[in-house]
Amino acid sequence: GEDRIIGALKDITPKAVRDLPSLQPAQISPLTGLYTLEAGQAIIEKNLLTGLNLQALILVDFRNLDEIEQRHGNRWKNLFLQHAGVGHQMESGGGPHQGGNDVPIHCRAGSFILFADQYESFREVTDLTRNLQRTLGAACAFDGESDSVEFSIGIAVAPYDALTFSGLVDRAAQACSQR
Hints:
The chain has about 180 residues and is α+β, with helices and mostly antiparallel strands. The protein is about 40% helix and about 20% strand. Strands 1-3-4-2-7 form a 5-stranded mixed β-sheet, sandwiched between helices. Strands 5-6 form a two-stranded antiparallel ribbon. It is flat. The two termini are about 30 Å apart.
């Protein structure tokens, strides 16, 4: 994330500084409504390997968002990301606004993570991934224009592929890069 200065304080007393609410980074992406990477990672690390069932980290990497932005403009790209964020929340059944155990994260411009928590079988994780692929794989259309979005999905399952958040992300990224 990028820090921004929203205001500046002048001639403030030490007591006033102590009385200010503590500043914390945003936990929800204003663009997508999903957890930010930092907030999502904290939740995942707290819950990783706590249950008896499978936990899968699903990484979705959109490959051609820059091309889409060049063809249709930044507004169109942002609309797509908002749509993808909504799709992520619907498929996960969780998220900051819906409750549940799954954790959808907007990592950076073209990447999302879905931490699928407490699934009983690999089949359930596969079904979830297929539903996500179907939702995001449809051609997107806004303002009468349509375009196809190319993406890769990589999956890493705890405890089989890795035992840490960063290990799961690395394994899922490796899977994304294999075509």
